[in-house]
Amino acid sequence: MKKAIALSPNSVSAWSTLIVTYGAIGKEDEARTAATELLKINPKFSAEKYLKTVSYKDDAYPRLVAESTRKAGLPE
Fold first, then answer.
1. Strand, helix or coil for residue 43
2. How far apart are CA 50 and CA 65, in angstroms?
3. What is the dihedral of CA 75, 71, 57, 51, to 10 degrees?
4. Banded pLDDT at 54 (limits 50, 70, 90)
5. Per the domain annotation, does 30 fall within a domain?
6. What is the pLDDT of residue 35?
7. Alpha-carbon span 41 to 35, nearest angstrom
């Protein structure tokens, strides 16, 4: 994800994926830092809106997104 962000620093998708990844592996400080950057790009970002734009096969993914974004301090 860091490479994707380096190539496209305004990618909401890359930042949100990084936040979810950090949240899933317990790196809450890094998730919060990434969330700060994401909100600079898209101040209206929310987990609910994000989930409406992505497809997923695992029914647990929405819960993971909600938990990770909450840990990062993003709105649900």
1. coil
2. 9
3. 10
4. confident
5. yes
6. 96
7. 10
Please count the structural domains in the chain: 1
**Within a 10 A sphere around the Cβ of 76, how many other Cβ atoms?**
11
What distance in Å separates the CA atoms of residue 19 and residue 33, rounded to the nearest whole number?
A: 9
Q: With beta carbons less than 8 A apart as the criterion, state whether 70 and 76 touch.
A: yes
> Is residue 76 in some structural domain?
no
Average pLDDT over residues 8-27: 94
- Tens digits of per-residue pLDDT, 57-67? 898 989 899 99
The enclosing domain of 66 has a CATH number of: 1.25.40
Q: What is the pTM of this model?
A: 0.87
Length of the chain: 76
